[in-house]
Amino acid sequence: MPEVYSEQTPLASQDCFVIFERRKKNFSFPIHTHPEYEINFVSNAKNAKRIIGDSEEYINEKDLVLIANPQLRHAWMDGKCISHNIHEITIQFHPSLIEPYLFKNQFRSIKTLLNKATKGICFGSRSIEKIEPLLQILSMEKEGFYAVNRLLTLLYELSKAEDIRILSSNETKEDSRNTALLNHLHDYITANISQKFLISEVAAELNMSRSTFARFLKAQLNMTYTDYLLDRRIKIAIVKLNTGLPNKDVAIQCGFNSVSYFYRVFKEVMGVNPTEFKKKNKKKRFIV
Predict the structure, then answer these.
(1) Which residue, 166, 183, 195, 221, is the most exposed by fewest CB within 10 angstroms?
(2) For 101-137, what is each residue's pLDDT tens digit?
(3) In this structure, which CATH number among 2.60.34.10, 2.60.120.280, 2.40.50.140, 2.60.40.10 belongs to the domain 5-166?
(4) What predicted TM-score, i.e. pTM, was given to this entire model?
């Protein structure tokens, strides 16, 4: 089974949701999970490959999916898509944003929707035609209060859709002991990413010996400890660069020995240096 990354989203605990709008030539983010619920809309990407849990499908010209399960792996990949003008709108929101209301009568349909979305659900063309304008409006709304209200309206409209289909046959397939250990490892490294890590210290955090931990990483991720740690530093650096943080600060906060080393390693992995990456990254994003 392909490696599953535990994604660190830029959504802070005091924020309600984050929305990204991208125009891009291809899909590059790996199969991943994250604690936040997600609505993902993709257009002009016919025959791209969508992976949700154990479901793997080639999508139509437009695709709309809701995921409400922190353990459900998902990704969109190039597949057989030949388009170089892919449009994607992604909304990620904390479960706590909506959970307090789910026992109210007015939110009953949304509760049913989210229960189904624990396995991932996709929407048919009729719903997409109705929902797409709401997504476009939400992506342009700059007033935080109104944006949250528009998100709730969007969820309600999705809850009324009749042309939905459950995607994954088993929402707990990834919720295994190894996945839990990997998620704990990711969280531990992320929380302390500015520090220097000894392999023995990290192994102890997972209640493993050094040799057992090394075998675990090799079996689960096909990585050495050094490669894994560098991979996490780069991925967290990407998130911080996207916030506009100065390159020097990113290097320090992500635990690189020097700015020059950060530049060299980042270019080896990403093909461009951090400054060039910022210029090329044309994602539209705002956080509410």
Answers:
(1) 195
(2) 888 899 999 999 999 999 999 999 999 999 999 999 9
(3) 2.60.120.280
(4) 0.64
